Amino acid sequence: MNNIMNQKIVNLLFPAIGFIIFIYIIFDIGIEKIAYTFISIPIFYYLIALIIFIPRLYLTSYKWLIISKKQKFNFDLFFLAKIFLKTMFFGSVTPGAIGLHLRIYYLKKRSKESIEKCLTNSLIETGISLIGSLFLALIGSIILFKYFPEFILIISLFFIFYVIVFVVLIWKKGGSKIFNFLVRYFIPNRYRSTAFKSIDSLYKDIPKIRDLAYPFLIELLVRVIAASQVYIIALAFSIDIPYIYFILMSLISVALSHVLPISIGGLGIREGIFIYLLSKFGVNSEIAFVISLSGFIVKLLIPGLVGLIIPFREKEKIHYNKFY
Questions:
Q1: 324 to each of 102, 112, 198, 226, 316, how far by Cα in Å?
Q2: Distance between CA 143 and CA 255 in Å, rounded?
Q3: Cα–Cα 20 to 30 A to 282, which of 82, 155, 169, 305?
Q4: How far, in Å, CA of 309 to CA of 10, rounded?
């Protein structure tokens, strides 16, 4: 009983590490400095950065549509765009963006497929997103090696790890063996039959690795567009950093904040890394902090809040009690 309670405490406190770092950075820099830096950004830059979100939303939804068609889902682009927006806020305020997977309930409601198949669809989309982020961060760590030699090893290890996990799990023969092993040795006998059926549902119509090459390429473009939103904010400070260098540094900070599950929405981790990266180019900490946080606001928070108020027709509303 004590072990369970201790584990729950750890699970609650672990994501708070990033928040503690975030608060520390604020007090270390100074609230007044940060506030002054924030209000010095003309609203025009925020508007341009938000407009750039539109092609990003289209490409993200199109990538997801390709994955869904490979799984024989009959979704349309507009539906996926709405679902992506509606769950974006929850993804931005939960560790590892786990809140984003609330969308599986909308997918199940529309498709009438099993919740396991819908879960697989959501995991594949986010898996490609994470691997794409790490891939670009790895490219960035290579190009910027002379400035930040310490990053290439950790990013390489994360990239290799997640690629192996993704490939093994999406490969039905390998992934099903792992799940079957876990069920056989860790699930009570009375639940095993149901668990084995769930495994079959997870792999129903699962796409092959080669089918995901095009969505992966689209994801790379999506990531560059997202980093460009941050660059638009940075232009307000006339920082003297080449566009490609800035984009790569933004990608590195975001990728590492995603794979380190010690914060909510990457908060604190992303800002700390970004401050360190830009300091090598003479950018003051308060400016780097505000650019990073403003990037989070225009990339995720504002679009997510907009998504929360998007109305759904009555027949599309989800009654969560049906799933419990």
A1: 14, 16, 16, 36, 18
A2: 16
A3: 155
A4: 34
With beta carbons less than 8 A apart as the criterion, state whether 229 and 52 touch: yes
| Packing angle of the helix pair 213-234, 243-259 (nearest 10 deg) | 110
- CA separation for the pair 295, 270 (Å, rounded): 10
Contact between residue 97 and residue 129 where contact means Cβ atoms under 8 Å apart = no
Reply yes or no on whether the pLDDT at 258 is more than 60.
yes
Q: Is 185 exposed, middle or buried (0-12, 13-18, 19+ CB in 10 A)?
A: exposed
Q: Quick one: tokens of 279?
A: 């300091």
- List Cα–Cα distances, 252 to 56, 60, 95, 134, 258, in angstroms: 19, 20, 18, 8, 10
Per-residue pLDDT at 184 exceeds 70: no
Q: How far is CA 239 from CA 11, 232, 288, in A?
A: 39, 11, 10
Q: At what angle do helices 43-70 and 213-234 cross, to 10 degrees?
A: 170
Can you tell me the distance from the alpha carbon of 184 to that of 262, in angstroms, rounded to the nearest whole number? 31
**Residue 319's pLDDT band (cuts 50, 70, 90):** very low
Smallest Cα–Cα separation from 104: which of 89, 132, 125? 125
Q: Distance (Å, rounded) from C-alpha 96 to C-alpha 244?
A: 27
Angle between helices 285-296 and 213-234 in degrees, nearest 10: 130
DSSP state of 150: T
Asked if residue 271 has pLDDT above 80, the reply is yes
| Total-model pTM | 0.86
The gap between the terminal CA atoms of the chain, to the nearest Å, is 25
Separation CA 157–CA 96 (nearest Å): 18
Closest CA to 304 of 129, 83, 132: 83
